[in-house]
Every structure is written in C-alpha cells, then in structure tokens.
Amino acid sequence: MYIELYNQNIEHISNVDMVTFNLTKRVYGTDTFSAKGIYQGDISTAKVLRLCQDDGTAEYSCFIESMEFTNQEVKITGLDFRHLFKTEALLDFTTSFDSSLYGVLKKAFDVLFDGEDTCYNLIPVSYTIPNEFKSIDTKNMVADYYGTYIIKDVSSFIETYLRIYEYYIQIELDLTSTKGLLLRIYAGEETSDLSLEDFEYKRSTSSISTNKTVATIKFESKIENENGTTTIRPRPSSIATIYYYLTKDNQIVQSSSPNIELEERIYPVVAKWYEDEYLAKAQFNAAYELACNRYVDNITINANSKLDPINLETKGLCTLFNIYHNGVFIYTLPLAEKTISVSNKGRTCQIKLGYKKMLLTEIIKR
C-alpha cells in the first residue's frame, strides 16, 4: 500500500511507499490514523493524505496532523476531516427556525462553510443532505429553538441530532469533481445475524451512574434594587420542571412528577440537573444525557479468518447486528468502531459493537 500526499491546494506533492498503518474508524467522535513508510523529496507542505491500495483504489483520507522523520522513513499521524466541526459557532434562530432535520443540519453547515470567515472553507467542502430529512421534524423530539440563539461546538450540536436519528457523517478527499472534500451522510446497512461462536470475541458490560435527570427553568433568587438593597425571592414550586427516569430495562420514562413508582427504577438514585432560561434547551440536555448513558454492552470481535461466515471488514459503520449466543438471541447492536491494521505480518481487522442508542421517540411519558 502507499499514501498520496497533497498540499492545502490539493496539489499532489509526493507518495509514501511501503506503508504500514493503523486505522480506527468510528461512527461518532473522530477516527484515528497513524502510518509509516518511505518517502522521497520535500513533503513538509503536505496537508492532506490519501491511503491507497496497490492497485490505486482509495481506502481512506484525512488531514495530516504531524510528521516525524528518521532518515528516509516518515511516521504520519492523521487528523479526521470531521475535526472541521470541532469549533464553536453562533447559530441564530431568533427570526426563523427550520425544525426539520434537513434545516437543522443545513444551518450548521452553512454557518461553518459559508460564513464570514472564509478560512473555514480554505479547502472547499461540498455536501448533500438527503431530501427525506425535510420530512423529519425535530421540534417536538429535540427542541424548539425559535426566538433564540445558541453558541455551541458545532461537532456536538450536529452529533446530537445524528445520534438521535441514527445517522453518521463521513468526509473524504474528492479528486474527480470538486477537488476538495466531499461530505456524505449515511445510515447503517440492512441488519445482519451474527453468532458469537463463529468468531474470536471479548464481551464486557458496564453500568452508567446517572439514572435520573431533571430539566427546569433557571431562576434568579437575588434581585438587586436601584437603592442598592437586595431582595431575596423564594424559588416558586410552580416553575416548569420535567423529570426523566432510566429503568432497569433501559427505557427512559418522562414525567412531571419528582417521584414515580416503578418496579424497574434503578436504586440507588443518581440524579443530574439541567437548567436554562428556556425549558426546551434544558429538556434536550436532560433527555439526551440518559439516551446516551444507558446500560451498555460492548463486544469486540477479531475478524481475521477467511473461514469467518461474515466478512465483517466489508460491513459499514452503524450496521445493526442481531447477536446470538449458543443459538439464543441476546440483543441488537450497531457496528460502532472498526480498526484495520497493516503490518509486515499482514492485514488484521477488529470491530467493536456497542449498545444501540435509544431514539427519543421511545421515551415513555407518565
């Protein structure tokens, strides 16, 4: 395998040959990539890399974060293109708010890539948002931001919606049409059956401490008067407050009551509060806290044998698997991470299955 190196103008500089590498692709968060090989010429201006198979087929591309040189060998650390989203931006919904999934994502992309600071788009980024996203209304499920503005990390803002609706983003180097970066939005592939006995695997379980969250409106108890005195106001018990409970069977129950009697409730109670001037913002954070922090199972599978009944390396991220153990169905898990390594000993692949994230439409109201 080899690596093509490009400067920030997407002009080819040189290649790195005899490459070994380690790549971990993730549904959410950012990928990690490292490689080493033999280089020629001056490659100090390299900004982007493209990993290619021997026949020229592109396998992966990303920014170059750092390079370390020893004689004619270079060690490269990559930086996921999705790092472009790891910056704060002001999202203004004071005059209008398109609550469709299409409108929410387009707002974030436009602010970042078509905003006043053109340096964000130094390497052009083209994207297409699926038209079916126009029919997905996020207002009731997530939040109604109309009349407000938020200053937020773009990555976490986008990821919130992607997690809830179970999509993910990949960005790759496009050398054919745009001579820039191409952003695509994906869903998982069709669900497959997987029997653990067919693979070498490691299974672990863990529990999450937070099992109750509370969303409420922020209240100022101290009022500074014009004469310099301070008035203390008691917090009214009538302030709008919504409670979310995580149950033993991984359901989220929404209620207006601070105390609900459920056999499935988790003991001891560990609560987390969210308050905001707008209840919608607090509700969103409270519900999402539990949606992302339920009881979690992780299964790591080594997918290296040609005798494996499923070629897991070819499966896309976010693909769902019905997991069986000794012929008994356990649960459905998504492909959350895929680690591919190429060394002098050959090519290996390891995948990680993580618990399926809950949709907020599954929240039970009591």
Folded structure, characterized:
- There is one protein chain.
- The chain has helices spanning 101-113, 154-165, 279-291, and strands at 2-6, 12-26, 32-39, 48-52, 58-70, 73-79, 88-92, 125-127, 149-153, 168-174, 180-186, 192-195, 200-206, 212-217, 222-224, 230-232, 241-246, 252-255, 271-276, 296-302, 320-325, 328-343, 346-354, 364-365.
- It is mainly β and 366 residues long.
- The strands form five sheets. Strands 1-2-3-6-5-4 form a six-stranded antiparallel barrel.
- Strand 15 and strand 16 form a beta hairpin.
- Helix 1 runs antiparallel to helix 2 (154-165).
Detail the topology: elements first, then pairings.
Blueprint: E1 2-6, E2 12-26, E3 32-39, E4 48-52, E5 58-70, E6 73-79, E7 88-92, H1 101-113, E8 125-127, E9 149-153, H2 154-165, E10 168-174, E11 180-186, E12 192-195, E13 200-206, E14 212-217, E15 222-224, E16 230-232, E17 241-246, E18 252-255, E19 271-276, H3 279-291, E20 296-302, E21 320-325, E22 328-343, E23 346-354, E24 364-365
Parallel strand pairs: 8-11, 12-21, 14-19, 18-24
Antiparallel strand pairs: 1-2, 1-4, 2-3, 2-22, 3-6, 4-5, 5-6, 7-9, 10-11, 13-20, 14-17, 15-16, 17-18, 20-23, 21-22, 22-23
Helix pairs in contact: 1-2
